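ok trying this again, last paste got cut off
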Amino acid sequence: MTSNYNLHNYTFFAGNFSEKKSDIIEDYISPIFYYLHDKLDKVNSTIYLLEKIKNAQNGSLGMNSIKSILLLL
């Protein structure tokens, strides 16, 4: 008795290949890219704010500006 355990063949490729390809991209790949995009966006914002604080320490910004920047963190 032989069994076929290739369940992924039944899940992903039963039917129209183009439609399944679009489903895979929408269900699995797009969320990963959205997650990475959000993480990079937050890191870039943090780096920008840290640079602002660094410049503030050098005297280019006043104390009110430093407080407003720190509230954003």
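PB: full thing came through this time. The chain has a mean pLDDT of 75.
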